[in-house]
Amino acid sequence: MKSVTEELSKEHGVLEPLQTAHSIEGQILELKETLNQHATFPVILIGHSWGAWLSYLYATRYSGDVKKLILVSSPGFKLSAGEKTLEERLKRLSETERKRMKTLLNELAHPDESANEKFLKLAILAAKADAFDPLLYTNDILEAQFDIYQSVWKEAEQLRANGELLELGKKITCPTVALHGDHDPHSVQSVQQPLSRVLSHFRFISIKNCGHRPWIERQAKDKFYRILKQEIYQRD
Fold this sequence. Notes:
Layout: H1 2-8, H2 24-38, E1 43-48, H3 50-61, E2 66-72, H4 81-92, H5 95-108, H6 115-130, H7 146-161, H8 164-168, E3 176-181, H9 189-198, E4 202-207, H10 221-233
Parallel strand pairs: 1-2, 2-3, 3-4
């Protein structure tokens, strides 16, 4: 979210923590340490994709630290969400690209020394499938670290599968808003419906003609920033 950080930093103090731990617990503690050192509590946490889940999980642990939670393009909370996301991505690619994505997924199931390189190629294919009408942009993937992704996402999927991910949401006390593009491969229903059942102060905002990364979308970028800034200033 480098572009988002740069835009928001024109008006606000902004931190963009880098997660390096190989477990959810480790990443939560990394975030806590960074905020303790550099932030003034309570904070507004803005998380994109996996970062949305990490922010959500942080707020279940340290509810007093968080003034507001903004979840951008969150993965789905329903059990079947992961499979449906992959299906949707594959549908949006050409036949050649679909074959390439499936090959990369199969190879990454048995990672070797080239796993990071393959993971980056997979991320680029996914980004293409995830976008609706993208502007030209520089790749904001800092570094492909497949070992971190593999270990953390495996834990996260288990939390989703056993229902604990949603159950933990009952501990969140701050206002929470989800911003979600209508072209995001993670379906609106897999985010809006589950969270509305467990969060006491929750709103969902759908953004038209918008994919998984709103800040690169030609037709949605301005609206995304306008909504995001309104949510930062708004007193719930």
